[in-house]
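Researcher: I need the complex structure. Ligand is flavin mononucleotide. Inputs:
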Amino acid sequence: MKVLTIIGSPRKKGNSYQAAKKLEEHLKHKGDYQFEYLFLKNFNLQDCKGCFNCISRGIEYCPIKDDLYIIQKKIEEADGLVLASPVYVMHISALLKTFIDRQAYLCHRPEFNGKKSMVLCTTAGLGIKETLKYMESVLESWGFEVTAKCGIVTAPWPPKTGVTNKNKAKLQKSADKFDKRMKKRNKKASIRFKNYMSFRIFQNVSENVKEYMPADYQFYKDKKYYYPAHINVITRITTEIILRLVFFLMRDLGPAEKK
Ligand SMILES: Cc1cc2nc3c(=O)[nH]c(=O)nc-3n(C[C@H](O)[C@H](O)[C@H](O)COP(=O)(O)O)c2cc1C
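Model: Output:
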C-alpha cells in the first residue's frame, strides 16, 4: 500500500517530518506499506492569483503553470495520504495554505472520492484542535475519508516523559485507525448525511448559477452523488426537507434578477 506523506513545514527534517517517520514505523509493523515523502518547500508552488477561474471555469484555466500538477498526480497514484503541518500561529503553515488555495476548485468538485487519509500536526503546545479540524475539513471537501487526526506536542525544549509517552500513544492510536481503514480501502464508507447534504447543496446552487459557474454545473448535472453509491431513502427525504429550509434562509445570496 502506497502512502504519500505531504510535509507542509519549511523545515525539511523538522518535527512534522519526525512525527510522520514515527507514524511510518508504527504502520510498517502492521502491513506492507511503502512511504513517500513530499516536501512542499521543494516544489515551485506559486500563490493563487485570485482570478477564480479554477472554481468557475475549471483548473485548466488557471493562469499559473507550476508544480501543482506534479503533486496532484502523486496524490492520485497513492493509496493513502498523510497530510502534515506545523502549527503556525494557531493554524497550518503558509506553505500548506498556498497548496490548498491553489486547489480551491476541489472543494466544489472533489476528485479524491473515498481515498483514505489522516492529518497530523506538531506544535509547541497550542492550536492542535483548530489546525487539525481545518485540515480535516479541507481533505473531506476534496473527497477524502479522514481516518485519524493526530496532534503532537514538540516544544523547543527537552520533553518530560509524560509528553513523550502521550505523543507515542497518539501516534500509535492514529496508525491503528489509519491502518484499519487502509485495509478496507476498496470498500467505500457508507454515505454520511452531511456529505450527501453538501452534494445536494452544491448541485442545486450550480443549477441556479450555471452561467456564472459553468464548471460546477457540468460537474453536478445528472449526478446522483459524487460516485455511484446507494443513498438510503431516509437520508434522501430528510435532505430534501432540510434543503428547502436552507435555500429559504439563503434566498438573498443568489444572483440578482436581470433587468
Ligand atoms: C512561525 C511559527 C509560528 C508558530 N506558532 C505556534 C503556535 O501558534 N502555537 C504553538 O503551540 N506553536 C507554534 N509554533 C511552534 C511549532 O508549531 C512547532 O515547533 C512545530 O513542531 C514545528 O514543526 P516543524 O519542525 O515541522 O516545522 C510556531 C513556530 C513557528 C516557527
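Model: Summary of the prediction. The beta strands are 2-7, 34-39, 80-86, 116-123, 145-153.
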